[in-house]
Amino acid sequence: MARILLIDDDEQLRMMLRKMLEKAGYTDVEEANDGHIGIQLFRQHPFDLVITDIIMPDKEGIETIIELIGDYPQVKIIAMSGGGRVGPQDYLKMAKHLGASRALTKPFKYSDLIDSVQELLSE
Question: In 3D, which of 93, 107, 122, 123 has the Cα closest to residue 20?
Answer without folding.
Answer: 107
